[in-house]
Amino acid sequence: MATDDQLDGRRARGDATRRKVAREAAMIATTHGLDSITVGALATATGVSKSGILTVFGNREAIQIAAVAEARHIYRETVLAKVYEAAPGAPRLRAFIDIWTDYLLAGVFRGGCFIAATTAEYGRRDGPVADEVRKLKRGWLTFLETELTAAGSPNPAVDAFKIDAFLNAGNARRELFADDTELVCAKDLALGVVDVLPGG
Asked: What global pTM score does this model have?
């Protein structure tokens, strides 16, 4: 029978494998889509054996769901953790737009914004993976609407739509044309939505 120390060691190794594989899966999703993720490709990219990956996750769908969860973790760590240092409303929205732009320019994900990539891929689809993608996108929109309300927007849902549209267009054009000026233009347009608010 395994000792507590041995069980803890196995658990720690399993957690490390899970995080490593999930992170690589999230990276692949931004360039090739969640549907392109395979156990073989992940094994090659991470150095973890196929059997080791399947021992931790069980199946490909579990890997895809873990990729979304890891992307959420990365997003919270690299964007939201810094954004919440700003005051609610317009200051926080400006910080969000600035930090989100910097996060894309820094190449945190290989293929740009994870939320944008997976939202396009999973539109009108059902199932556990699609549900997680929708939750991620809904969290993004809820954040925008909450801060727009605090900034005095007369119609937070419409203003959130505008900011979301500008930022997604900037991300898509930057990835397609490999031109950072597209993202800078989107940033300026999104900030323009904030500037005209009562609390802006």
From this structure: 0.90
